[in-house]
Specification:
It contains ten helices and ten strands. The protein is globular. It has 316 residues and is an alpha/beta fold. It has a seven-stranded mixed β-sheet, with helices on both faces. Helix 7 runs parallel beside helix 9 and helix 8 runs antiparallel to helix 9. The protein folds into two domains: 193 residues, Spore Coat Polysaccharide Biosynthesis Protein SpsA, Chain A (Alpha-Beta Complex); 96 residues, no CATH class. Strand 1, helix 1 and strand 2 form a beta-alpha-beta unit.
Length: 316
C-alpha cells in the first residue's frame, strides 16, 4: 500500500492540516462500465480519504470484481456487499449508503462525502472542495456542478446553493444534525438533505469554478425526454415546489428541446399531482421553507433584471 497521499498535507512549520480530513461512501449497483474510472480518479487525488467504503448494492455484473482489484492495492478502500433485491427504488440507495456509513463508526474525520460510481474528476478536486470547508466554518454542504457532454446546469434557475447528489460533501456535524439521508422511494434524497441543512442554519454551496464529469447520460429520444420531463414536474410537486415557481420553470423549459411541448408537459404533470393530491413525502415545515426560498429567488431575479434594464436604458 502506498500511504504517501492518505493524509492531508501539512502547513509548513505548523502541525495543522491545510484541509479537513474526509471519508467517502459510494453505493454502486451494476456499475462495471464506469466504476473503474471513478476509482482511478479517487486514487489519483492529491489528498486521499481516510476511508472509502464502496457498497455493492446487489450487483450482478463485474462491479465487485473491479472494486476488489483496488481493495487489494489500497487498504483505505473497502468493499461491502449488500444482498440482491428485486425491488428497485431510490430508498435502496440510502440503505446502501447507511451500510457504508456504519463501517465508518469509530473513525475520526471532518467531512463525509456521498460519491456516485459513474463520475470522474481532476486530481485536485477534493482538495479544492475541502479548502472551501476550511475557509468557512458555517459551510455544511458543498460540491461543484457536473458536466454531461455539453450539458451543464443553467444557474438562472438552479440555485448555487443546491449541491447535486452525485457528489455531495457534508461537514460531519451538519450530516449528523440533519439525521443523514431520508430513504424516500420517489427520490429527491439529495435535495431534501441540502434543504434540511439550510433550514437548520447551515450554509450550502455549489462552487462553479470546478466541475466533474457525469458519464451516465440520460436518453435523448423525444419520447424518453418527455417521460423524464413528466416525472420531473410530478416530482417538483412531491418535493414541495411553489406553483408560481413552477409556472416560470415551465416557461423556461419551453425554450429547450422538445420546444414548447416540454414546458407544457412539465406544468401539466405538476398540476396533475396537485389536483390529485399526490402524497408529499416531505414535512410541511420543509415545504414552507422551500417555497419561501423560491419566492425570494424569484424576487431577486426580477429585481436584477429590472436594474439591468435601467442601466441599459441609461447607457443608451
Amino acid at each position: 500500500m502506498n500511504s504517501s497521499l492518505t493524509e492531508p498535507k501539512l502547513v509548513a512549520g505548523v502541525n495543522k492540516p491545510v484541509c479537513p480530513s474526509y471519508v467517502l461512501v459510494t453505493p454502486a449497483r451494476n456499475e462495471e462500465a464506469y466504476i473503474e474510472g471513478t476509482i482511478k480518479s479517487v486514487v489519483a487525488q492529491r489528498i486521499r480519504p481516510v476511508r472509502w467504503v464502496i457498497v455493492s448494492d446487489g450487483s450482478t455484473d463485474r462491479t465487485d470484481e473491479i472494486v476488489k482489484k483496488y481493495t487489494d492495492q489500497h487498504g483505505w478502500i473497502e468493499l461491502v456487499r449488500m444482498p440482491e433485491r428485486k425491488e428497485r427504488h431510490f430508498a435502496g440507495k440510502v440503505h446502501s449508503f447507511n451500510a457504508g456509513y456504519d463501517r465508518l463508526k469509530g473513525l475520526e474525520y471532518d467531512i463525509i462525502g456521498n460519491l456516485d460510481a459513474d463520475i470522474s474528476f481532476e486530481e485536485d478536486y477534493f482538495e479544492f472542495v475541502l479548502k472551501k470547508f476550511a475557509e468557512n466554518p458555517e459551510l455544511g454542504v458543498a460540491g461543484t456542478p457536473f458536466r454531461e457532454g455539453e450539458y451543464q446546469y443553467d444557474y438562472r434557475f438552479t440555485s448555487s446553493e443546491h449541491v447535486s447528489g452525485a457528489c455531495q460533501l457534508f461537514r460531519r456535524e451538519c450530516f449528523e444534525a440533519i439525521g443523514g439521508y431520508v430513504p424516500m422511494k420517489v427520490g429527491g434524497i439529495d435535495l431534501v438533505a441540502v434543504l434540511t441543512a439550510r433550514m437548520k442554519g447551515w450554509k450550502t454551496r455549489c462552487f462553479t469554478e470546478k466541475t466533474y464529469l457525469h458519464h451516465r447520460k440520460m436518453g435523448t429520444e423525444n419520447h424518453k425526454s418527455l417521460m423524464i420531463v413528466w416525472k420531473g414536474g410530478y416530482h417538483d410537486y412531491l418535493m414541495g415546489g411553489h406553483p408560481v415557481w413552477q409556472v416560470f420553470r415551465s416557461v423556461y423549459q419551453m425554450s429547450k428541446r422538445p420546444f414548447i411541448i416540454g414546458g407544457c408537459v412539465l406544468f401539466a404533470s405538476y398540476f396533475w399531482a396537485m389536483v390529485t393530491r399526490a402524497e408529499q413525502p416531505v414535512s410541511r415545515e420543509l415545504v414552507t421553507f422551500r417555497r419561501r426560498e423560491q419566492m425570494r429567488r424569484l424576487r431577486e431575479f426580477f429585481i436584477r433584471d429590472v436594474c439591468h434594464l435601467r442601466k441599459t436604458r441609461n447607457g443608451a
